[in-house]
Design a protein that fits this description.
The complex is a heterodimer of chains A (112) and B (264). Chain A is an all-alpha fold. Helix content of chain A is 82%, strand content 0%. Chain A contains four helices and no strands. Chain B is mainly alpha-helical and 264 residues long. Chain B is 73% helix and 0% strand. Chain B starts with a helix and ends in a 7-residue tail after the last helix. Classes of the chains: A mainly alpha (112), B mainly alpha (264).
Amino acid sequence: MDSTQLAIEERVAEQHRHHRKAVFFYVWVALLVMTAIEVYLTYQNLPPVKMLTILLGLSFIKAALIIGYFMHLKYEVNIMKWATICSVVGCLIIMTIFFFPDAFRILHIGVK
Amino acid sequence: MADSALHDIPSVYEPSLFGTYSKKIGMWLFLLSDSLTFGALLYAYSYGRISTTDWPTPFHSASIVNATIMTAFLLTSSLTMVLAVRASVDRNAKAQTLWLLATMLCGIGFIVLHGREWSNLIAEGLSLPMFPAVPGHEAASEFVNVSKTVPQFAATFFGLTGMHMLHVTLGVIYLGVVALRRKFIPILLVLWLVAWLGTPVYSPFHYGAHVLLIAAIVISIILWLKPKVYDSSDVEVAGLYWHFVDLVWMFIFPLVYLMSAKIL
């Protein structure tokens, strides 16, 4: 491996050494608590649309915690953060535009 | 001023645009492409759900409890993975191996519980045409009509969760190689034999177990061609993959299980 890569690896390792372990425990507990809330809501028989909204909201918060803290993206340089997030979100928006109007239309007219 | 003069090294590479090493950028690129694979599968599942008025809700309380324990396993495995990365940057090889093994154990726990869930659903009649019939369960099949009237449920459920289970399995193997290197190959072969011979012939896992054999062959070739001691960057890159598998489950669990629960 070339010396530039080794130097970058050592710098990244040094960044890791400065992170407090307690933060990871807090994130883990928060993830477990949010999972417990999701399961609790399942037993409350909420209307499906309300249920879906809350579950997706919690899922996105959990995803952000995992990506930010466990996957270390919070500590990466800005261009890395934006390139990663924008590309995925952009593709998911395109998928949404293609898929869902048609699915709702089928629901409206009924499946023949 | 030239980069080589700035860094005082005879490098032929430019400094990284993304501020990190190339292995990590490569893994992020793979994860981005993989997120689109799972995105497409989740959209396909949601599309089927919205466009089908009589969508089945097969998950009883026992299934929800099972899936919740599976989620706890994955979340805990992410914590142990982070601790493995931390041990690796602290150059504590023993702790690194122990945390990696703990992560693998949680992953195996997830796979076993998921396999049990699949087996129960198949025994109750929720199946795919490619799955062999379970002997003696035809009369008691709860979901035999679901497979005929709403075939897209079984197709999207087994497709989505099967793809995720495959990712978890490959993740466990990946971590095993990073933690134990060549010593992991005989362990993997034993796991293959247990999974193959320990499951009945009509189970999809009887044939799915051969993934472990294929992985053992591929790993043997890779370690023979390029034997190395894995350093902290390798552990961190493996960790990125593992956290991604956890991340995907954070969407599968509520969308597939909780939104299709039958709580009486």
